[in-house]
Amino acid sequence: MEQRIFNIGSSVEKAVMWLTEHFGPVFDVIKDNGNGLIEGFENLLLFFPFYVVIALLIAVAWYKGGKGVAFMTGAGLLFIYGMGFWTETMQTLALVLISTIVALIIAVPLGILSAKYRNLERWIRPMLDLMQTMPAFVYLIPAVLFFSIGKLPGAFATIIFAMPPAVRLTSLGIKEVSPEVVEAAKSFGATPMQVLLKVELPLAKNSLLAGVNQTIMMSLSMVVIAGMIAAGGLGEKVLEGINNLDIGLGFESGLSVVILAIILDRITQSFGATKKK
Amino acid sequence: MPESNIKIEVKDLNLIFGKNKKEALSLLANGETKSKILQKTGATVGVNNASLEIYEGEIFVIMGLSGSGKSSLLRCLNLLNNPTSGDIIFHGRSISKMNQNELREVRRTGMSMVFQKFGLLPHRTVADNIAFGLELQGVNKEERLDKAHKSIENVGLQGFENKLPSELSGGMQQRVGLARALANDPEILLMDEAFSALDPLIKAEMQNELLDLQEKLKKTIVFITHDLDEAIKLGDRIAIMKDGIIEQVGIAEEILTSPATPYVKAFVEKVDRKSVISAETLMFKNMEVAHIKKDGPQSIMRKMRQKGLSSLPVVNEKQEFIGFIRLRNVLKVTKDSSLNLSDFVETNVASVYSHFTVEEMLPLIADTHFSLAVVAEDSGKLLGIVTQTSLIIEATKYNSEEIELLQEEAQEI
Questions:
Q1: Is B107 in Cβ contact with A186 (below 8 Å)?
Q2: Which residues in chain B are closer than 8 Å to A201, comparing Cβ atoms?
Q3: Would you call B120 and A181 a contact, using CB atoms and an 8 Å cutoff?
Q4: Which residues of A touch B163 (CB under 8 A)?
Q5: pLDDT tens sequence across B198-253
Q6: What is the domain count for chain A?
Q7: pLDDT score for A1
Q8: Residue A205 within any structural domain of the chain
């Protein structure tokens, strides 16, 4: 290695170690509960026969997106079932959905705050840049140190990786609300909370939904990488394919990821479009 | 005009945008101009020491070009802009010293605002937009839709209740904006260039409807515009602003006939005065008058000769206007004592009230040689006369010499 002038790596390492030493019990509690939540959701999806889950998803797709999306959802899921990846797909779906929900719970308020407070935004933006561009694998290291291997560290890494677009798009959506409409609401005596709930969030809806969509897509890509730390699901199958140079397995499990991605993308996008009468 | 009740009072109000507010304020107190202060401190003066009294039930128009501070001043009234110094007194209380709850109460029930670009919620129907103010107050759905419906009828939006704003034309959207403000039944309507975004025909229509509505509702309205014609049409009183300073406050005619500053003068020169200038302004008050009972033909003739007039207005003993008498008829009476002066008074002539405008008086001089007599509306007493020449001067903007020149040229032809 070339000669170093300073050593950031060791500081980060020390910080992570300090956290694991002093907050070990906290991480354990998070890990146990989190794992329980993810597995519970997984078990729920797998408790029903596959056709019930497919029918349910088709219903949602039909209601929001219409015939085309419903047909694609049904065909895609049956295809996955046919290839024999149903269990893995449901595991992945559970992890994606839980990660997305947690990411949104953190990201949406953060996006709202950063739209309202310039100073906060100045701090948040470089953080988001870092979170988005840092090679995704790097997150796996602290995840494993904090929570060892398994589903929860997978979710942890996924949440960090998938959060930035939701923060950015929420912030953008709120900033794009016409100032005159906000002023009008204020002039009629709206409280700041009323302005947020009755004006800003409804008007930022499309941008918010684009954020949800992006978060789901990012989660899905990260969940596959999280297969490396035994997060299970399709990611593990892809990894198995790579490790054994099994082109067939790699292709089929990869294809399942693609199909799941397309279905989730179309369904969430259809929430944004105004419903046709 | 009920001038007695002051609805809202603005006292020594200054509004400064940007940093260095204190420094800018002290420079302002020393009489520095807006541009100097911007140069020295980087702060923008929005409103410069404005004081106003707005009376109950009047339409008060604040007019000025863009950057004059008129909208900034309006936004101080409901504290969308926080004044840097000075007071706004509403119901005996200073609005700028209220806490958030009290301020919200004023905004909810005291004054409602109508915006230039409408400021409607695009995801809500017309009815829900109109009920928005009531919704913020926590009025239950049934009651607020009921009140919204009354407001919808007031502005003529029946049948559009379930449309979205984007499905309406500009004029209709601004009706929604107006109905939304009226639904709260506020004491004061703040209208910020409410009709400026509309095309001319719709604009005129909306102005007329606002005037009709005002007849019925008798609100206090503060109306902002950059259009002097609109200000004259709507305003009971008008304030003219420039660079954050209120240059003049008065009724339209005062502003047109006695502009307080060169700026106002330059501004009002472009206006069509015909519909504003009234008989009151144009009439001669100290004219010679023939008293039918008191004056004999000799004294009437002397009055005419002295002033070089060919006719005189005639009044009875109660000073009521009767008609005009011509010099040649007076001469006839002086020569033939059997004739009665009162038989020669021409009574079939036009007389006007003092509020008649030039536009209304011009058609009256087409078929007569006489001046127009201005009489009091209640008593019929003669107040003054408006000569044909002064009407023509007012209408054509030629001065009397130019008119004489034109007449000479015309005779040569």
A1: yes
A2: none
A3: yes
A4: none
A5: 888 889 999 999 999 999 989 999 999 998 889 988 999 999 998 889 999 999 88
A6: 1
A7: 63
A8: yes
Residue A3 resides in a domain: no
Distance in angstroms (rounded) separating the CA atoms of residues A236 and A151:
11
Under DSSP, is residue B261 helix (H, G, I), strand (E, B) or coil? coil
Identify whether A277 is part of a domain.
Answer: no
Residue type, position A18, single letter = W
The whole-number pLDDT of residue B392 equals 83
A188 touches chain B (CB under 8 A): yes
Task: Say yes or no for a CB contact (<8 Å) between B112 and A186.
Answer: no
- Alpha-carbon Rg for chain A, nearest whole angstrom, is 21
Which chain B residues have a beta carbon less than 8 Å from that of A185?
132, 136
Counted residue by residue, chain B has a size of 413
> Which tens digit of pLDDT belongs to each residue from A122-131?
999 999 998 8
Q: What is the CATH number of the domain that holds A165?
A: 1.10.3720.10
Q: Which residues have a Cβ under 8 Å from the Cβ of B299 and sit 6 or more positions away?
A: none
Q: Which domains does chain B have, with CATH numbers?
A: 6-271 (3.40.50.300), 280-408 (3.10.580.10)
Counting Cα atoms < 13 Å in the Cβ hemisphere of B106 gives: 23
Asked if residues A171 and A201 have their Cβ atoms less than 8 Å apart, the reply is no
For residue A203, give how far its alpha carbon lies from the nearest alpha carbon of chain B (Å). Answer: 7
Determine the distance in angstroms separating the CA of B11 from the nearest CA of chain A, rounded to an integer: 21
One-letter identity of residue A134: M
What local confidence, expressed as pLDDT, does residue B2 receive?
44
pLDDT digits (tens, 9 = 90+) for B78-135: 999 999 999 999 988 899 889 999 999 999 999 999 999 999 999 999 999 999 999 9
Q: Which domain holds residue A222?
A: 8-272
What are the tokens at B206? Answer: 């909306």
Tokens 């995801």 sit on residue: B123
Rounded to two decimals, the ipTM of the complex is 0.76
> Is residue A199 assigned to a domain?
yes
Which residues of chain B neighbour A181 with C-beta distances below 8 Å? 119-122
Residue B223, beta-bridge partner list: B61, B191
Rounded CA separation B98/B79 (Å): 10
In chain A, what residues touch B102 (CB-CB under 8 Å)?
none
What are the residues facing B357 on neighbouring strands?
B278
Which of 120-179 (A) contact B at CB < 8 A? 178
Burial string for B40-56 (b: 16+ CB within 10 Å, else e) reads ebebbbbbbbbebebbb
Pairing of strands B220-225, B59-63: parallel
Angstrom CA distances, B347 to B309, B315, B377, stand at: 18, 11, 18
Among B9, B8, B45, which Cα is nearest to B28's? B45
